[in-house]
Structures are given as structure tokens and as C-alpha cells.
Specification:
mainly alpha; 2 domains; 3-stranded antiparallel β-sheet; two-stranded antiparallel ribbon; 9 helices
Length: 221
């Protein structure tokens, strides 16, 4: 049974790997955004993030944002725009769904079942210089994430001068709008953690460090 389940999981990931944001159909000039593949199985991040949460968050919530976006952009100037352009320039419902699509791909790509658990090199130096230590950075990041009222995101970004900044963003908020380079973004909407942690957002933020891959964040930096 385990071998059969693994084979199905691998086959599903291979099929999903062929789709990504911003594909253009050969028979239709309008760009169609599609669900991006996960770089791991849906159960790979347990116990930090459960398979059930992944199936709902990635398979349902993200898919809904993408479906909404494809419908909303028809006949607008964003019909053939990529997700990043929409996140920077759009407003209203197009922005909300487009930015959430961008945010979520960025979010899911941050994790790994076998992550590098701490930064090194220039990123580690920047974190130590700005926050005093990696542990103090994590404490501040958790504080900002837990303290955000309502739904949204907590971000670590690099500003135009190369300085690290932690920001709180409501709803679909995205540091790209401020000209920042996002490095790490954690979703603090309830759908990201409620199945596993109920209303204990702070517990989720502490546990999720176990699956954040600092090798990915160093490349972004």
C-alpha cells in the first residue's frame, strides 16, 4: 500500500510539474495562469504543516485565486500580464487574486522536507547586523506575524539600499508594491494553520521554522 501511494504521489507531481503561471495557449493569445506544481509531496512537511492543510491551502485556496484571476483579467490590460506585473500594478479584485497567487507560489517554494535550517554567509551577516542574532530575528518575525490583526502576511524583505526589513501586510499585501525584494513570506490567514493549530497562530509560526529552507532564501537575497 505504501509503495502504491508513493507511486501515485510521484505521478501526480510529474503531471503537475508541466504547469506554471503565465502559460500561453497555442490556440489562444490570452495568457492563462495555472496551478504551479509543489516541489514536494503534500505530506512532506508534516508535522509542521499537515497533508490536509496542504491539500486545502494549495489545492483549493490557491486554485481558487488562479481561477478567479483568469476570469477577471479577460478583456482588461492585464489579460496577458504575468503574475508579478499584476501584483505590482493592478487594483481591486484583480490585484487581490493576482497578488495572492504570487504570494502563495513564493510561500510554498520556501519550504522543504529537508531544509537548511539557518542562514549562512552574507544573509546571516545581514540578519546579525540588523537584529542582533538569528534567534532575535526569529523572535521579531514571530511577534510581527502573531500581532498582525486579521488576515495577511508577514514578510522579510530587502529594500533598495540592501537593508533587511520585516513588514506586516494585510490580506493580499505584497512588498513588491513598495519596491522591496521579498525574501521570506509567511501566510497568517487562518486557512494556513487552522486545521493543525486552531486559533494558535503563534504556535504555527514557531513550528514552521522546521520546514523553512534557508538555502532558498539565500538565493533570493
Amino acid at each position: 500500500m505504501a509503495i502504491k501511494t508513493t507511486a501515485i504521489t510521484i505521478l501526480s507531481m510529474m503531471l503537475l510539474a508541466s504547469v506554471s503561471y503565465g502559460q500561453t495557449s497555442k490556440n489562444n493569445k490570452a495568457m492563462k495562469h495555472e496551478l504551479p506544481a509543489l516541489p514536494y509531496a503534500t505530506d512532506a512537511l508534516e508535522p509542521a504543516i499537515s497533508k490536509e492543510t496542504m491539500e486545502l491551502h494549495w489545492g483549493k485556496h490557491l486554485q481558487t485565486y488562479i481561477n478567479n484571476l483568469n476570469n477577471l483579467v479577460q478583456g482588461t490590460k492585464f489579460e496577458n500580464a504575468d503574475i508579478e506585473t499584476i501584483s505590482k500594478e493592478a487594483d481591486g479584485a484583480i490585484y487581490n487574486n493576482g497578488a495572492q497567487a504570487w504570494n502563495h507560489k513564493f510561500y510554498f517554494d520556501t519550504f522543504s522536507p529537508n531544509p537548511k535550517k539557518a542562514p549562512t554567509g552574507k544573509l546571516a551577516e545581514a540578519i546579525n547586523s540588523t537584529y542582533g542574532s538569528f534567534e532575535k530575528f526569529k523572535e521579531e518575525f514571530e511577534k510581527q506575524g502573531a500581532g498582525l490583526f486579521g488576515s495577511g502576511w508577514v514578510w522579510l524583505s530587502k529594500d533598495k539600499n540592501g537593508k533587511l526589513v520585516i513588514t506586516q501586510e494585510s490580506n493580499a499585501g505584497n512588498p513588491l508594491r513598495q519596491g522591496y525584494t521579498p525574501l521570506l513570506g509567511l501566510d497568517v490567514w487562518e486557512h494556513a494553520y487552522y486545521v493543525d493549530y486552531r486559533n494558535r497562530r503563534a504556535d504555527h509560526l514557531k513550528k514552521v521554522w522546521d520546514v523553512i529552507d534557508w538555502a532558498v532564501i539565500e538565493k533570493r537575497f
